[in-house]
Design brief:
The protein has 380 residues and is an alpha/beta fold. The protein has 2 domains: 274 residues, Luciferase-like domain (TIM Barrel, Alpha-Beta Barrel), CATH 3.20.20; 94 residues, no CATH class. The chain has 13 helices and 13 strands. The longest helix is centred in the middle third of the chain and has 21 residues. It is globular and about 70 Å long.
């Protein structure tokens, strides 16, 4: 059977995304993230180069685990300032014809009733090209700033997410029947009221008695992404996701993850091959291997040690600022991204803190492939 590699660009509505410090490079444009022209230029480039979509990450909160404050996050623009991702869907759609637009939104910080309207609106504006990356969030700062006092425990966050999805499905799929909207000018009937239904949801975490506010969008329920790599995250993805995003530092970890997620999908009575897995990879390409390597070394000169550890500390919940650069990473139980800790503490190698900072400074938690187009194609 012929298999196809699919490409999905990974970005965020902020400065530099997961490459802290590279905003200072003379060729950097990420600092213009506030301008729609930046995003439309990027989208047109991706569509010309046969990318399937652009996947826009997001976090609610800020990275304040490293050295116990958000000083270095602010100092190095480590995903702060950060703008809302869903507002990029319409301008990207206007600049392209078929590029998919995946936006990230958390089930922890917004009520499903209001979010369902935002999601349907984006699907209308993109004519059915929007996707939703479902996250449960991992930053204590986000939970505190929306009045929750602190982050729920990891497993409980997925219990909330499961009911959140139940509400979303009821609103998007069940509230408005096909044919409810007729726009009959002669009879002066826009909508048949008897074809619009209250969902009557009353659950453990949410109570939503009424109607969805939007008429059905082209997809009704957009393409669903999921980026959880813990046991709870994979179980959730096996039930709901069409696309799964994972950041695996090594091939053995990636292979194990893909086998596990496909097995879980099969147990959930789904076709495992209908679940697309996107793995995080950073590509640095030039005309020759030597030129690409020189470009990589040039980029590395701009990597921020503190900025990189801001991310690593936030993702794992471990304050790496309390260790010396030569200390080794050890597994610690935290309430952040469980898989990030497991991956770093396993994989057959020991990481010194300074190695971790250098490795994660360009592209985050995934591998970096450097070379000519032919070399990188062979690696992929």
């Amino acid at each position: 059977m012929t298999r196809q590699i699919r490409f999905n660009a990974f970005d965020m509505n902020c400065v530099g995304h997961q490459s802290p410090g590279l905003w200072a490079h003379p060729q950097d444009r990420s600092w213009t993230y506030k301008d729609l022209g930046y995003w439309q230029d990027l989208a047109r480039t991706l569509e010309r180069r046969v990318f399937d979509g652009i996947f826009i990450a997001d976090v609610i909160g800020y990275y304040d685990v490293y050295k116990g404050s958000n000083y270095h996050a602010l100092h190095q623009a480590a995903q702060i300032p950060v703008n809302d991702p869903i507002q990029l869907a319409a301008p990207i759609a206007l600049a392209t014809e078929h590029l998919g637009i995946g936006i990230t939104a958390s089930t922890s910080f917004e009520h499903p009733y209001t979010f369902a309207r935002r999601l349907s609106t984006a699907d209308h504006h993109t004519k059915g090209r929007v996707g939703w990356n479902i996250v449960t969030s991992y930053l204590e700062s986000g939970a505190k700033n929306v009045g929750e006092g602190g982050l729920r425990r990891h497993g409980n966050r997925y219990e909330v997410a499961a009911e959140y999805l139940e509400v979303i499905y009821k609103l998007l799929e069940g509230s408005w029947e096909d044919g409810a909207v007729v726009r009959d000018r002669e009879k002066r009937v826009f909508t048949h009221p008897e074809k619009v239904h209250e969902i009557g949801h009353k659950g453990r975490f949410f109570e939503v008695p009424g109607y969805h506010l939007c008429e059905p969008s082209p997809q009704r329920t957009p393409v669903l992404y999921q980026a959880g790599a813990s046991g709870s995250g994979k179980a959730f993805a096996a039930q709901h996701a069409e696309c799964v995003f994972v950041s695996a530092p090594t091939q053995p970890i990636l292979k194990s993850y893909v086998a596990d997620i496909r097995e879980r999908a099969a147990r959930a009575s789904r076709d495992p091959r209908e679940l697309y897995v996107y793995t995080l990879v950073t590509l640095i390409v030039d005309e020759t291997d030597a030129k690409a390597q020189a470009k990589f070394e040039d980029y590395r000169r701009y990597v921020s040690y503190d900025g990189s550890l801001v991310f690593m500390s936030g993702w794992t919940g471990i304050d790496f600022g309390q260790y010396a650069p030569t200390d080794l990473v050890r597994k610690v139980e935290t309430n952040a991204i469980v898989s990030a800790i497991e991956h770093l503490a396993s994989g057959g190698r020991a990481w010194a803190i300074e190695e971790l900072a250098a490795w994660g400074g360009i592209g985050g938690m995934g591998p970096v492939f450097v070379g000519s187009a032919a070399t990188v194609a062979d690696i992929l």
